[in-house]
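Hey forum,

I'm writing up a methods section and want to include a predicted complex as supplementary material. The small molecule is zinc ion. I've pasted the protein sequence and the SMILES. Can someone with a working setup run it? I'll credit the forum in the acknowledgements.
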Amino acid sequence: MNYVEIVEKIRQADAILIGASNGFSISEGLHIFADNDAFEEVFGDFKRTYGIRNILMGCFAKWPSQESRWAFLSRLINHYSIDYTGSQNTEALKAIIGEKSYFFITSNAENHFELAGFAPDRIWEIEGSWKEIQCERGCHDTLYPLFPLIPEMASAEQNMKVPSELVPRCPKCGGPMAVHSPQQHPVAGDMEMQQRFQRFIQEYHGKRLVILELGIGWRNQLIKAPLMRLAAQEPNAVYITLNKGEIYIPDQIAAKSYGLDGDMTEMLGQLRQAIQEITTNNAGN
Ligand SMILES: [Zn+2]
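Reply by user p_vandermeer:
Happy to help. Structure tokens for the complex are below, copy them as they are.
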């Protein structure tokens, strides 16, 4: 495998743009589409009572009440985000990025990059984030922190319901609150992150930009297609894609691209090791 060559490109880069999607979450044990053992263990009662077969289905279910809806959501977020402080894979990313300028664009909503210690103003969660809620009716534009509300809801949950007094309500209209989702109601915060992303792209226009794509399916139009277009437009960009069985690199950018096919954790670990070896050798010279 051409790890040494890839690592040289990363070391020479002026900045790293990381695109991450479902495949990265799966590598950290969060599979939003799967009816697997982990789903059974955490949500078996919801599955049998409401026919919810995976996390995604639960996020968009028509719940009989806000109390049930927030029982599902608080259990979900409590389990996957509240105690999360990083993984082997986010540690590998820190080593790979090093001191370089970076930006994340991700469709993952569990907020793991921020929780692992990356800067929130450099992470655009384009499909929203579990860290915040907004008025579901869209009566106003404010995002409110959700994580502080989760532990109490999750611990007070009984029989797949949270107590009514813990259900979040819109402070302006009194209506239900929803987990931050730009697809439902885009708010000013979404526009701001999009602008930060644009500024990052402009800042490194013409420079050595490494685009590192983690676990994005080949059909993905939301992140993958724009990143491939960017790679094509930028004369000095390098495009590196890590995926399992789904490496797709169009001819147009083949000359500046690297595809690594395999287990995400193993591949990030290899990159991390290769970078550390080169850094140590250089320090010794
Ligand atoms: Zn409202």
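Some notes you might quote in the supplement: The domain at 3-28+87-128+186-284 is CATH 3.40.50.1220 (Rossmann fold). The mean pLDDT is 95.
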